Amino acid sequence: MKEQEAKTRIGQLTRELQQHNYNYYVLAKPTISDYDFDQLLKELETLEKQFPQFRLSDSPTLRVGGDITKEFKTVKHRYPMMSLSNSYSEEEIREFINRVTKAVGNNVEFVCELKYDGVAISLTYKNGILVQAVTRGDGVQGDDVTNNIKTIKTIPLRLQGNYPEELEVRGEIFMPHAGFNRLNAEREEIGDAPFANPRNATAGSIKMQDPKEVAKRPLDCIIYYVPQDLPGIETHYDAIKYVGSLGIKISKNIALCHKEEDIFEFINDWNIGREHLPYDIDGIVIKVNNLALQKELGYTAKNPRWAIAYKFKAERVETLLRSIDYQVGRTGAVTPVANLQPVQLAGTVVKRASLHNADIIAQLDVRLGDTVYVEKGGEIIPKIVGVNLDKRPADAEPVRFIDHCPECNTPLVRKEGEAAYYCPNEDSCPPQIKGKLEHFISRKAMNIDSLGEGKIEMLFDNGLVKNVADLYYLSYNQLIGLEKTIPADENKKEKKISFQEKTVQNILKGIEQSLTVPFPKVLFALGIRYVGETVAKKLTAHFKSIDNLQQASYEELIAVDEIGEKIAESVIQWFQKPAHLEIVNRLREKGVQMELIEETSTISNVLEGKSFVVSGVFERHSRNEIKALIELHAGKNTGSISAKTDYVLAGVNMGPAKKEKADKLGIPIISEDDFEKMINNR
Length: 682
Ligand code: IVH
Hints:
- The protein is α+β, with helices and mostly antiparallel strands.
- Helix content is 36%, strand content 20%.
- The relative contact order is 0.06.
């Protein structure tokens, strides 16, 4: 096949297969047989092998989704994947130690480890290459999630050092807190339900069909067990250190213990120390160290006899439920929040707890005036887990979930299949407007960092902005002297703050600078439900301008790669509202970018023909931003000062040699202020 022909065919096959995938997975209405699909896929694979230069970055061959079997392949474990028996008290640990010493003698050496709270995984390396990753499943067989697991950066795809021909290791996939919080914030930003805890987020992530999406999830993995014998290795501890030497990530927090007290010390230390770990653990694992003794002890039907897990107790207290508030979030979701009689729990005073949604309230049958059990488990916010019925007063009132929005009084709606009630008044309900404004100015959107949550609130409360377009119509006179009273609380007196000259200038400048933000970010900033950063990029790359997007039909939208029904419907609905069209027009009038500009284009020509050397540290921009601004205004950046340099743009800390050279050549040295004047007075 000729090159040109191959290129066209690859394009055709890619699109065709994508459509079939879509028909199959999303619509559940396949239009060809599995056999025919496999034939097409094979043809594409062969062509891509022959002409790798034409493989499209979204080729179905790169995805798990390319496999028509929808479900992950089931794989039998070579060694069964057992779980540990759990214990919750020192007594049970003592019993375990006694059982072990009775069976194999005194002076047994134990290893204590952290019990990671995630999802167990078994990895197989052949000749040093990761070939398979399987979930635990029922212990006998699990799911082959290799392609997803390969996206986890801390799992080596190739081993180093002296590895055996075949190696199986086991460990836990988990999501550290920082990444979990970021992921949830992003989900809330685009209106997706947040994950309840890092474990759920991990489990959801490794079962996703698109490894490219998994790659964006901040997953980590620590290996804690080797099920096979290794030549010359006699203890669990040595086995772990050995796999560590092959480049596999193992735990740093592992201790050899000879006495019962050492084990309890490890448990007690980590019961407190876990507060400071960057990820969740739910207990401690105690293992017999010697591998021969492990074999001697053997297994019950479900668990090894040579190991036990000590699970930390979720701290639980009883307190009085005083009342229930209803909070309206950025997406309009209404969350019931319990007001409690303050109570000490896991080191903090708890006054409020989440009640999640109407279903949970009904399930728990919580009533006002009840004494409730409050727990702090893996979740960040404490939750009500039950009612002490013995203490229920005769007049305890059943909870009637509100039917109108507590903020704007609009009747609430509940979508089919969703647990939450929503306030549908997305454009005029105060928390929803504020949420939209905060999202609009956020770093990944318009990046107006001179405005923040507090300032947005002031602008909104004073009636100066009711939607994102209003920001661009703010004037100096409206802003200067704008006041806010911060009410007194237990620790502080009432305080008044007001906008001063510098703040006002910064706010206006920040808004002005956001005119350079490219269209994909603008589209993301508009906060259309389900249009996150990636979707915004896909849509803008395809439709090029907001006008084209607005006119796109449902069919045209879903024909775009990775745009599904939910997104298409949401985009269409958004543009159907006249208020939204008005926002778009008013933004456009002020110069907010509403179409894709090719990368080389510029904002103005004011710096045309001028050559700059940028040096030192600046107050309001990074050096890279300054350089980008120079290019956006048609100027040129050069590295060193010469007779051809027109300006030296100097921040603090400019090197003395540079200054001397500029002075000698008579080249003007300008400041960040001067530069901003140059580009703003065009
Ligand atoms: S050892 C044969 N060590 O806890 C026993 N497990 O039910 C192999 N876990 O399925 C497991 N941290 O997912 C072991 N340091 C650790 C662990 C650990 C977490 C998990 C694992 C296992 C479950 C126990």
